[in-house]
Amino acid sequence: MTHRIEDVVARGMCVGCGACAVRTAGAIPVTIGRYGVFQARLEGVDAEAIRDASRVCPFSDESVNEDALTQERFAGMPTDDKLGAHLEILAGRRTSEDEVVLSSSGGLTSFVLAELLSSGTVDAVIHVGRATGEQHFDYAISTTVDELESSRKSMYTATTFAEVVTAIRGDGLSYAVVGLPCFITALRHLAREMPELGTQIAVYVGLVCGHLKSTFFAESLAWQGGIAPADLESIDFRVKQPGRPASDYDYAAVSRRDHASRVRRTRDAFDTPWGYGAFQPEACNFCDDVFAESADVAFADAWLPQYQDDWRGTNVVVVRDERVQALLRAAAERGEIELAPLSAEDAARSQAGNFRHRRTGLAVRLADDLKRGLSVPLKRVDPDRTLVTRRRAAVIRQRRRMSRLSLERFARARAADDFEVYAAPMRRAIGRYDLLDAAARGPKPLLRFLKRRVSALLTRTRRQRRKPTATGG
Questions:
Q1: Residue 140 is inside which H or E element, if any?
Q2: What is the pTM of this model?
């Protein structure tokens, strides 16, 4: 059975990219949903528009997959099962300490975009930037390096390019566009279906993605720092701290009331580990593209032992375009960036958990849904519940339940103005996940987990006993 855009939307699998809205000139609206994720709305849309939209939807079987896009754009280039096509695989960062500190990782994404702009390769860059209003972030267009530099750093939130990409059609300018893997794939689909738009998008820049986050993620971080969702003015998701590993960063949330910034260690927030899948949309359970395989260049964090301890951060770069390759080499010769060759194996290893979720985990989720009689997209991963042990399958399923729970419960918490409406059930779900994960790893990890749990329980009991009690006279 063909999985069309109607099935994508009906199953809550829409990622909100906005390709359908662009293709149909706004006949299909894409708006923010109740769980803080943009969603397409098909009610009242005529059949022809829906057919057109289905050919550009990244989760529809009626659009071509990343392998086909790779053959079209990167024919003859070496390919890797995990990375896709590649001219060169690198690790690197900006050499300026001041510049790299202001970046999420090694600063090479913003550096390449600025070089594309200043060299005249493109006239403007389409990217996610900071915005006013409840969403805090939105797709924007930068025509100068200063505009571009003001929107550096990771922005873990739901967005849509529908409005911005619709607005550029026929304006005579060339663009670089930045996006997550599914967004880049959707833009490639648009370029195939709308050649006049395709001529305008000159460079596709991909960001390796663990999973998309609902707008609730920013609100949860802020709430845990003492700023309620309605009071959140802005947030910086990654504030680097010297002396810590690259993965051990802070976040800073700013209150509307006093404009004060609350800086907090990210790992102190209970729901931030990416493996918990908090605030992950359902679409991310059906993605098999980690390294933005249809992008001209893809950037990731170098989560590898040789780079992990450097607080400044390092990028993994998969280059698929000769223009980007030449730009990087010239900048390295000028001493503006540091580059080192990286093996395909190390590049893939830097995203090991990501591949477990999008390949092995995907096989289990596809098989689970097919068994329930649900429509699923045709992926480059075969449905298979036997790839993992029963205990590991239990972990995969619990993670999926946690993603759904986080969205549902946080929506209730916002309505009730009570963080614990979300936090209490989510903490219980995380406890179960940690137990299942320890059991799946084997007897020794399970024993260590149980010892830690008992120790924490005893500590909490002792603290409660030491608390003074009220007495009456």
A1: strand 137-142
A2: 0.94
